[in-house]
Each structure stands twice: as C-alpha cells, then as structure tokens.
Amino acid sequence: MAIYRDEGMVLRTVKLGEADRIVTILTRGHGKIRAVAKGVRRTRSRFGARLEPFMRDDLLIAQGRNLDIVSQASSLATYADSICADYDLYANGGVILETVDKLITGEDQPAADQYGLLVAALASLAAHRHDPRAISASYLLRALALAGWRPRLDSCLVCGREDDLTHCSISGGGVMCSADRTTEAIRVDPVTLDQFRALSRGDWRTLGSGPLTPLCDQLVEKWGEYYLERPIHSLRLLDS
Length: 240
Prior knowledge:
This protein is α+β, with helices and mostly antiparallel strands.
C-alpha cells in the first residue's frame, strides 16, 4: 500500500460505521481527496480533533482501493478554535468551505493555487482581519476567477467603453454601459460596483471597514451560484 505525505485543509466530514469518519480534504499537492479516518469518533482517538472542518494538518495518508486512509495527522493551524467560537465567522467560514468543495469536483487533481487562496482566506477570517462577510465574498469571487470565471469590471462587455458603467450582467460575465446593456443585466450604483471590484481583487484598502451594500451581497451570491451551477446553501443561511 503506497503512502504519501501532504498538508491539507479539512472541508467536511461524514460518519462511517460506529467509530470512523470519511474526511474530505483539500491538499496542497494532491488536490481534493476523500479518506477514511479510523476510530476518530472514539473519545480516546489520538487525532480525532485534528480532522474537523477548518483544521489545517500535516497528513500521512495510505492509498486505498476506493478511499485513502489517514494514518497520521498533526495540526499546522487550528483555525477552527477561533472560527467555531463566533457565529459570524462560522457562517462565513461555511461559505468558504462549501464554495471550494463544490468548485473542485474532481479528486486527486493538483490545485495548489486554490489551496493557497483557501488557507489565506481562513487565516484572515480566524484572525478577524476584515469583515467576515467581505472575506467570504472576496474568497468566492477570487476562487471562481482562479477557475476561469473572472469578471470583467473595468469596461463594457459590448462596446468596451470605460465610463457610464451602470449595469452588471451575471451571465455575460461583467459590466455594461447604459446604452448597450442587455435586458437581464442588473442596474448597479457606483458604491456597489466599487465594492464588487474590490472584492474580486482582494483590495481591502478600498473596501475599508464598512459593510457591503445589500446589492453587492446579492451580486456575489448570484455570481457564485451561476458559475458553480448550484446553490450555495451557506449563503442562504447568511441571508436568513
């Protein structure tokens, strides 16, 4: 049985049998994997707490026929301690984990850039560096951009003009001027457009410490669900 070592972030877990758990992990070198963590639900488990969502671990994994097996796990960063103690952090952290889990559909495919972005987002969230909702919104837009869906926000999709950008087309992939907008394009005000641009770039100086506009929240949600081709349930939780 081949064994490999990698670092990874735990995305989600599912119970298996009486004491085991199937763990979905995004790793730096092997992409997304699913592995069995044996005995981790027992109270005397050596590393059960290290294999929970928001935990970044150094892992020793044995390749299996259907599922890999986690042989060892040591903590590199315990983001869960901070995130799970605060509802806003936890809810927005859920958006981040759900986004990357749905975005990366294939297993055992390297995704080093996505892994780096995920680690940076959760580290920022756990350290309270910015508004939690802005962190999850920026992560969603930037993760989709890495996957090939980068919004065009500085010039009209139709004519290329750089002024009078009054609408945003989710299906078109960016902004439009008032003269060439399509019927499904959403009218956006200058503040919302500036926030959406800043989120897509991770420009925290422009975003500042104020809240996102309701329309910016709506655009982020629509953008994510359109390009992921499925709802982001954690975002619906934030809206409730």
